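A reminder from the course coordinator: this example appears on the midterm review sheet, so study it carefully.

Given structure:
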């Protein structure tokens, strides 16, 4: 295999990824930010690839993709400084968190997630994540019922 062949293969793979991104592109996707505390909205509207500030100061999120076959939404989240999300729940949606960097402490369930850890909350399960400064994680919301 020579350099030209390798370059053509890479270019073909990039083109395929771009096509896949176009097919999976969603605009104005509703994300379930349901809460027990009254200060936060019930939902947010996200556009794929656009970073948006969350109701919690110091955190932003971006819609990565939507998988219609599983009714799942994949979000990338990151914090600038420590963020206490308060007690909240997501009615009708399972929430899964996959830690990439940093730490989340679920103050309600006394669980600590570090890079490489994950947790899944059943639909409607109250939880209280406290996210360390500089954390990055993926959230997957899957609609059930």
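Designed residues:
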């Amino acid at each position: 295999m020579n350099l030209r062949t390798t370059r053509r293969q890479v270019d073909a793979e990039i083109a395929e990824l771009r096509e896949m991104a176009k097919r999976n592109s969603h605009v104005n996707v509703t994300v379930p930010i349901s809460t027990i505390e009254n200060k936060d909205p019930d939902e947010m509207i996200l556009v794929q690839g656009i970073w948006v500030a969350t109701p919690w100061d110091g955190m932003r999120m971006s819609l990565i993709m939507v998988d219609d076959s599983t009714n799942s939404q994949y979000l990338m989240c990151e914090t600038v400084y420590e963020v206490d999300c308060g007690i909240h729940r997501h009615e009708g949606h399972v929430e899964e968190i996959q830690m990439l960097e940093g730490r989340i402490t679920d103050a309600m369930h006394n669980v600590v997630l570090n890079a490489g850890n994950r947790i899944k909350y059943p639909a409607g399960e109250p939880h209280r994540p406290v996210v360390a400064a500089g954390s990055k994680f993926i959230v997957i919301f899957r609609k059930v019922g």
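DSSP finds one helix and twelve strands in the chain. The mean pLDDT is 85.
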